[in-house]
Amino acid sequence: GDLLGSVATVAYYPPGSEALARGVVVGLESCSACILADHGALTVGATIQDALRRMMLLERMAVMTAEVEAR
Q1: How many CB atoms lie within 10 A of CB 15?
Q2: Which of 2, 8, 46, 59 has CB 3.0 to 4.6 Å from 27, enough for a Cys bridge?
Q3: In this predicted structure, what is the pLDDT of residue 30?
Q4: Which residues of the chain have a pLDDT value below 50?
Q5: What pLDDT is stored for residue 12 in this prediction?
Q6: pTM for the whole thing?
Q7: Measuring CA to CA, how many Å separate 71 from each of 14, 21, 51, 66?
Q8: What distance in Å separates the CA atoms of residue 53 and residue 65, rounded to the nearest whole number?
Q9: Element at 29 (helix H, strand E)
Q10: What is the pLDDT, as a whole number, of residue 2?
Q11: Angle made by CA atoms 9, 69, 63, in degrees to the nearest 5
């Protein structure tokens, strides 16, 4: 839905690296959520509550996807 929108994926880059920072910036240009390979996920919003709601929705969707794929 509109609350989460598209989710960007960012390839693995070492923690703290310029490449990781650039990947996140590019991902957030068009999305409000990013999944960072081997690091986790991040969400943004107009308020901390918006960002938290997006993270909770992203996590719920990930669980549902894993359950469906396990069938």
Answers
A1: 9
A2: 8
A3: 92
A4: 1
A5: 98
A6: 0.84
A7: 34, 36, 31, 9
A8: 18
A9: helix 18-30
A10: 66
A11: 65
